[in-house]
Amino acid sequence: MTASRVLVVNSGSSSVKYRLLEMTDGSRLASGIVERIGERQSRLLHFPAGAESSDPASGGERRERVEEFADHGAALRAVAEELAADGAGLDDPRLAAIGHRVVHGGRTFTGPVLVDDSVLREIERLIPLAPLHNPANLTGIVTARALNPELPQVAVFDTTFHTTMPEYAARYAIDTATADEHRVRRYGFHGTSHAYVSRRTAELLGRDPSEVNVIVLHLGNGASASAVRAGRCVDTSMGLTPLEGLVMGTRSGDVDPAVVFHLVRVAGMSPDEVDELLNKRSGLVGLCGDNDMREIRRRVDEGDEAAALAFDIYIHRLKKYIGAYYAVLGTVDAVAFTAGVGENSAPVRSAALEGLEGLGLCVDDGRNEAPATGPSAKEPRIVSPDGARVAVAVVPTDEELEIAQQTYALVSETDPAADPAAGR
Ligand SMILES: Nc1ncnc2c1ncn2[C@@H]1O[C@H](COP(=O)(O)OP(=O)(O)O)[C@@H](O)[C@H]1O
Ligand SMILES: CC(=O)OP(=O)(O)O
Ligand SMILES: [Mg+2]
Known about the structure:
Strand content: 15-25%
Oligomer: single chain
Bound molecules: adenosine-5'-diphosphate, acetylphosphate, magnesium ion
Strand order of the largest sheet: 5-4-3-2-1-6-8-7
Order of helices and strands: EEEEEHEEHHEHHHEEEHHHHHEHHHEEH
CATH architecture of the largest domain: 2-Layer Sandwich
Radius of gyration: 21 Å
Shape: globular
């Protein structure tokens, strides 16, 4: 039997998202999420084939478990049990591999890799650069390996797509010896999303990725922008860690680094407290108490001043990055909005491009505001007017599909039993 299925595991700091895919047609066989890992009441939500994971109302067949999952290992073992209950456990011969999202791959990993002991050691060595993410990613891989030692495990890194950045974009202007000794440079994240969305945008324009320049705006809870020239990343807004750049749900994005010294020296905060402030109590939530863009827009519409200022700061930062990457690229074929906010918030898209007509950038209000519902909501679409100099696009991201495709391509190369044509 040909093994043509891939399980994708995306371990976040306190959650695990997963999806089982059939690579011959890219279909979803199961998916789910384990949330609040490490808390008393963790929750596992499992959606077998047919139950639509993105729509809670259609959860007829979904299964829920509320119990304590002490760590990512316990969570993944519970996921394996749910999959086994569907007749598709980790020992299923139809399973070709597990693809794991790993947030930080440093400069070591310029593509997906088959996990062995040396890969695990390297992911561990990179923990100081991604203390919230890499430990969870590592536990996920180690647990999956223990559950089925024969099954290939593939690591797909958030940083890979950005390894093509030129040195002048990747380096900070600080003492070279210090930077080199401590690996201080800009790595960039959300790479699988930027890769997927820039490619899909080229397809939407009916052109080859090598022919187009795209600014990708990944606006989820974490948010980042990237400048993609001819299919290769030339700049991105996240840096050493996922803190730099845009205003995010709970992260500040760019601040003067002296803010940190000030808070340590004058406010008496410890480095860990400042870290927590900038990563978890800043961004939209720090400015107005909410990090969900739907709630913020509702408050803006009711005349709430704190929400209006938070929205304006978010948009101002976004606009600055659009301008910067326009200048970096010189010629721009498309601006692509993606992730939770980018795909769903028409006010964010129109405000971010307001006043940029001189750069050939604007939205068509009717197209921008047309609600995307049903299966077509996941289809990329153009929201700029016909004949616009730069296309503005809404391109739903699919990090899980991208990870699955990279995983399957890699194991197909190494395992002649798998069909290399499938899933592409
Ligand atoms: N209909 C919507 N309108 C505006 N914003 C939305 C909508 N749906 C989701 N969002 C925003 O998307 C965010 C989540 O984005 P997502 O890409 O799923 O984030 P992540 O993967 O980083 O958790 C929410 O916090 C919310 O701000
Ligand atoms: C790297 C990163 O910021 O990821 P997320 O948006 O999933 O938090
Ligand atoms: Mg995300």
